[in-house]
């Protein structure tokens, strides 16, 4: 029954040697290749171009919350931590240093304070 409506018989199965001899370099470049490369670059670049000197206590910022993926939220910078200490509403100890400071941000929706790395901050708002 199957053979009558669709030829399922294998007449010739290529060998690994035949596949190796195929030349795929002559195929045209995919049209979406440049768009994909641009999108990949945007996704893989780390956070924003902010440095620690750009952020100050009291500034309103847009940032990626922990576990929020690509989601953005807004908050106020409450503290810049440059040494290990317990911070935020969860009272977690952060491994901050002068080279890798943590920024304590109060979420404008929940009013909870949490420490974030600089790369989580997307932009400073006015």
The secondary-structure element order is HHHEEEEEEE
CA(first)-CA(last) distance: 72 Å
Silhouette:
elongated
CATH fold name of one domain, please? SH3 type barrels
CATH top level of one domain is: Mainly Beta
Helix content: 10-25%
Main β-sheet, spatial strand arrangement: 6-5-2-1-7
Rg over CA atoms: 26 Å
* Biggest sheet overview: 5 strands, antiparallel
What's the pLDDT, averaged over the residues? 82
Q: Would you identify the CATH architecture of one domain?
A: Roll
- Give the total of beta strands: 7
List unreliable stretches of 5+ residues: none
User: So how many helices?
Assistant: 3
Pfam family, one: Hva1_TUDOR
Protein name: Hypervirulence associated protein TUDOR domain-containing protein
Report on this model:
This protein has a five-stranded antiparallel beta sheet, with no helix packed on it. Strands 3-4 form a two-stranded antiparallel sheet. The protein has helices at residues 2-5, 16-21, 33-44; strands spanning 60-63, 73-81, 85-87, 92-94, 102-107, 113-117, 121-125. The chain has a domain at 52-125: SH3 type barrels (Roll), CATH 2.30.30. The mean pLDDT is 82. Strand 3 and strand 4 form a beta hairpin. It is built from three helices and seven strands; from the N terminus they run H-H-H-E-E-E-E-E-E-E. 17% of the residues lie in helices and 28% in strands.
């Amino acid at each position: 029954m199957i053979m009558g409506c669709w030829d399922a018989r294998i007449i010739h199965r290529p060998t690994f040697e035949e596949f190796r001899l195929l030349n795929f370099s002559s195929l045209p470049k995919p049209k979406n290749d440049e768009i994909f490369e641009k999108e990949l670059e945007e996704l893989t670049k780390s956070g924003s171009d902010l440095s620690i000197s750009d952020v100050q206590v009291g500034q309103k910022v847009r940032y990626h919350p922990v576990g929020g993926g690509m989601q953005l939220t807004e908050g106020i910078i409450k503290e810049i931590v440059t040494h290990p200490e317990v911070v935020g509403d969860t009272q977690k100890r952060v491994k901050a240093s002068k080279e890798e400071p943590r920024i304590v941000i109060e979420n404008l929706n929940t009013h909870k304070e949490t420490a974030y790395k600089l790369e989580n901050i997307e932009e400073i708002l006015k």
